[in-house]
């Protein structure tokens, strides 16, 4: 009887680990640019390292795409809230406002990054409501291209605009490669 219980426990553990080893990884920590020190035999064990802070405006997060060689360092450079339309006759709907997020996408992979970057973005408010992008030009600066073709080592920079309710407090921004279908999602806290 004990062997059956032990076998069932091991099977449950293996199934649980397999279920946790899937996709939908959300990366919220900025890239660590501090070089690691070589371990020394004379070094005493150090206390536990402090947890890395969540990524914020100005931090870069590395994400990979679905295809071999697809890799980006993604940085949220600026957030403009509220953002103003660059056209006099076009603006957010009544009861809503625009939030513009400036992304910098640096291709650190070996393949050309070919995508519509806005398709893989969203913002979330403090109530958990999520909002996708809208096509708009704002006075803050140039829009992100809708057809990025970024060779390895090069960058794309531009604003992506989101239409949100006036009362919403936007707290996070997310970016996922492959029009939102890649396994990794980068997330920044913005307030």
TrEMBL record:
Keyword Signal applies: yes
Pfam families to which the protein is assigned, alphabetical: DUF4352 (PF11611)
Comp. bias regions, Polar residues: 22-31
Region (Disordered): 22-66
Leader sequence segment: 1-22
UniProtKB keywords: Signal
Claim: Ligase is one of the keywords in the record: no
Chain ranges of the DUF4352 domain: 71-182
Transmembrane segments: none
Name of the protein in its database record: DUF4352 domain-containing protein
Organism: Streptomyces brevispora
Lineage of source species: Bacteria, Bacillati, Actinomycetota, Actinomycetes, Kitasatosporales
């Amino acid at each position: 009887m004990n062997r059956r219980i032990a076998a069932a426990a091991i099977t449950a553990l293996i199934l649980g680990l397999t279920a946790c080893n899937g996709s939908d990884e959300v990366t919220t920590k900025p890239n660590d640019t501090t070089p690691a020190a070589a371990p020394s035999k004379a070094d005493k064990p150090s206390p536990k390292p402090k947890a890395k802070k969540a990524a914020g405006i100005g931090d870069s997060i590395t994400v990979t795409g679905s295809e071999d060689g697809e890799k980006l360092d993604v940085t949220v450079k600026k957030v403009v809230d509220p953002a103003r339309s660059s056209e006099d006759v076009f603006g957010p709907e009544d009861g809503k406002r625009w939030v513009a997020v400036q992304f910098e996408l640096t291709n650190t992979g070996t393949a050309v990054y070919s995508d519509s970057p806005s398709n893989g973005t969203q913002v979330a408010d403090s109530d958990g409501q999520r909002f996708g992008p809208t096509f708009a030009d704002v006075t803050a600066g140039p829009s992100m291209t809708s057809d990025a073709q970024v060779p390895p080592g090069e960058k794309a920079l531009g604003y992506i605009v989101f239409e949100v309710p006036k009362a919403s407090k936007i707290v996070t921004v997310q970016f996922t490669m492959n029009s939102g279908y890649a396994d990794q999602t980068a997330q920044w806290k913005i307030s």
